[in-house]
Amino acid sequence: MTPSGIARRRFFVGAAGAGAALGLGGGGAAAQPARGAGGLPDYVAWKDAEDLIVHTPRTIEMKRSAFGSSGITPDTDLFVRNNLPPPDARILEDRDGWEVSVEGVRNPRRVALRELKAMGVESVAAVLQCSGNGRAFFDHKASGTQWRVGAAGNVMWSGVPLRAVAEAMGGVADGMRFITARGGEDIPQGIDPRTVMVERSVPIAAMDRALLAWELNDDPVPLAHGGPLRLVLPGFFGVNNVKYVKRLAFTAEESDAAIQRTGYRVRPVGQRGAPSQPSMWEMTVKSWVTQPLRETADGPVQILGVAFGGARPLRRVEVSTDGGSNWQEARLLGPDLGRYAWRPFALAAELSPGTHLVASRATDEEGNSQPEKMEPNERGYGHNGWRDHAVEITVR
Amino acid sequence: MTPSGIARRRFFVGAAGAGAALGLGGGGAAAQPARGAGGLPDYVAWKDAEDLIVHTPRTIEMKRSAFGSSGITPDTDLFVRNNLPPPDARILEDRDGWEVSVEGVRNPRRVALRELKAMGVESVAAVLQCSGNGRAFFDHKASGTQWRVGAAGNVMWSGVPLRAVAEAMGGVADGMRFITARGGEDIPQGIDPRTVMVERSVPIAAMDRALLAWELNDDPVPLAHGGPLRLVLPGFFGVNNVKYVKRLAFTAEESDAAIQRTGYRVRPVGQRGAPSQPSMWEMTVKSWVTQPLRETADGPVQILGVAFGGARPLRRVEVSTDGGSNWQEARLLGPDLGRYAWRPFALAAELSPGTHLVASRATDEEGNSQPEKMEPNERGYGHNGWRDHAVEITVR
Fold first, then answer.
1. Mean pLDDT of A136-152
2. Is the Cβ pair A216, B70 closer than 8 Å?
3. Using CB atoms within 10 A as the burial measure, which of B17, B216, B276, B325 is most buried?
4. In this complex, is the C-beta atom of A85 within 8 Å of any C-beta atom belonging to chain B?
């Protein structure tokens, strides 16, 4: 797959290159992106183009064939999804000087990143997954990027626990029920900011796991992933993990920004979004096979994949090589990185010549298993049905 | 430190640039390396030059200021140390076709990587550390690269357990006491191969943790780190983790290559290496502070660092801000990645104006603590004395 470890980050191959030839790309690369040197947009030119599918300059997917068995997704492979163009890269010139307005506490004020770094520090491994990951598998042609499995990664974040920040400011004010965070993107002139701004609210119970993070995988958070400061909510879908966070408020009500009121709402096909519908908050149990993907030789093979419980710990993963008639429990690999992380898995199998539908099915600690079919919803969110995620393998 | 996440991998700064200006570089960059585009040798041009110190083209150190708190060292920051020039990058063109000769088993034969992948798979997090890490801190000017703390990283490997390979070949032959691995480097003509070849032996008891690994941090192993296939021996110093492994033998005796017979032997200053001296096999307990390093503001600060037990699990880390008169136990951050991994740590402190000698001291599960002073040895191996690793901090 990768011809040379030396070459892989120096000579980029775009989505129309060797990767797409493997047939593993998404179906909806409608917009031809503005490309930086090497086939990737400038702000992500440091990523590994061979492992990525560029849908648009702001929606970049990791190839299914690029997931490994080591547990942590390198930031060079991590998917990108920005609702708005990212801010100018100059915001990273003085990371420690970045300020966030903390509101809804007894002593609200602006606080600089250098001060947050002195308040406390914790590290967490967590799955980062776009709400629309798996959208391409729905039959009803939901609008939006046609992500397959690669709008997800398992990464490590370091930052200050949000609880420590609230305590340093006198504690949360009375009556507050939500954590509301606003991103630092520029809002175009002449538009009602609420129609486009990235401001999301989640229940305040998430405070016990929330970080204001300045580090991704042991490096300062890159611009593409929300640097210099990102709200990290382990167990919650990606959109809630607000990038370049410049306002962090404890609020009595959810944000009235469109992205919260009507966006990221789960509803039947054909309906419009509304605040009464479930919001894309906590993730559910999910898994997918990563190797083999299309063909393999006759004989013994290790079937590999990744599995996670979403907001709950993972209990087990099963694998079927006959389209779901029979299941065997897979082995979990490597260290347990915690309840919000994913776990690589392996099942040793013998495949005879012919075609096999290879599926995986994960179960969380509460006994929730991936469904065989996922009910469609208007925007194609949260697909975790095991049959659509299965792969057809041809054995020679 | 890093002006821009976009820029950091695109516009390289060499060791003589901004990083060296921080005063964090090693003391012995005698040879001016042949540089690829951007200040790094070609075979590691994909690494993050801002986070590295190039001692020579084959000895590249991670800056102390580049270590984060997330636990896993990205391969873009991982140190490089090659005893011989790496093989031609074309060996990566057909990774699955790479063959290793397995000997000292009942049914010895050559086996291809694609076959190893079907035999089994496991993942492990492990500290990779050069035997000479910390050499610069010895007073006796030991010859060799003057590594400070950055010839070490904590990474994740995936590969087949060596035990599974041996079992697939009928089991280890009778009387074998060592695992002996030879690297795939080209040996110059006209030289007795035993004087330069990289062939190392370790006690066969290491088999229960050894992997033949094809993946580093979720990506195929880069050439600089031993791809396509590396012997990984968690808990052992780096040199034993043979790169581009082409011969894997269970042997009755240690290798007679110079690198085993006389190299990597611990002996008093002034003595020559000999097989009777201890070999640089298992690592010992160690830690170092990573933040702050030179200056910090008056008031609260988080003192950060990394700690590991070597071949034994880590029990605790203590931090002193007064040069060792008083110690406080630090908090360990993030998930426990297993007994061979390191763990980031943090201690919340208040530092008054003036200078402070900030030290860390780790203790393993058997109660072994880092010594205050490390006894010198001829080649400057295995330095884990806490006083030399301490940092003097000026508080404004």
1. 97
2. yes
3. B216
4. no
Amino acid at A75: D
Structure tokens at B264: 């990597």
Residue B167 lies in a domain: no
Residue A267 within any structural domain of the chain: no
Give me the DSSP letters along A77-105: T--EE-SSPPPPGGGGTTGGG-EEEEESB
Whether A174 and A26 share a structural domain: no
Task: Please state, in angstroms and as integers, the Cα–Cα distance from residue B45 to each residue in A46, A279, A386, following that order.
Answer: 12, 44, 41
Kind and range of the H or E element at A289?
strand A286-291
Clarify whether residues A290 and A315 are in a common domain. yes
Q: What is the pLDDT of residues B14-45, one digit of tens each?
A: 333 333 322 233 322 222 333 344 589 999 99
- What SS3 state is found at B116? helix
> Considering the domain boundaries, does residue B115 fall inside one?
no
A53 and A75 belong to one structural domain: yes
What are the tens digits of pLDDT across the range A273-300? 999 999 999 999 999 999 999 988 889 9
Residue B204 in any domain: the answer is no
Distances, alpha carbon A32 to alpha carbons A15, A40, A58, in Å: 10, 11, 11
Contact status of B203 with chain A (Cβ, < 8 Å): no
- Does the structure show a pLDDT above 50 at B115? yes
pLDDT band at B13 (very low <50, low <70, confident <90, very high): very low
For residue B393, give both structure tokens.
């901090």
Instruction: Compute the distance between CA of residue B297 and CA of residue A267 in angstroms, rounded to an integer.
Output: 52
Q: Give B158's Cβ-side CA count (13 Å radius).
A: 26
Structure tokens at B285: 């307990």
User: Which chain B residue's Cα is nearest to A226?
Assistant: B5
* Stretch (H or E) spanning A354: strand A354-364
Based on the domain organization, do A248 and A198 belong to the same domain? yes
**CATH code of B307's domain:** 2.60.40.650
Percent of chain B with pLDDT over 70: 90
pLDDT score recorded for residue A297: 87
- Name the B residues in 22-81 with CB < 8 Å from any A CB: 42-43, 45-46, 48, 51, 67-77
Domain range enclosing A235: 89-134+144-261
Structure tokens at B267: 């002996």
Q: How many residues does chain A have?
A: 396
Q: What is the domain count for chain B?
A: 1
Domain shared by A110 and A238, yes or no: yes
ipTM attached to this prediction: 0.90
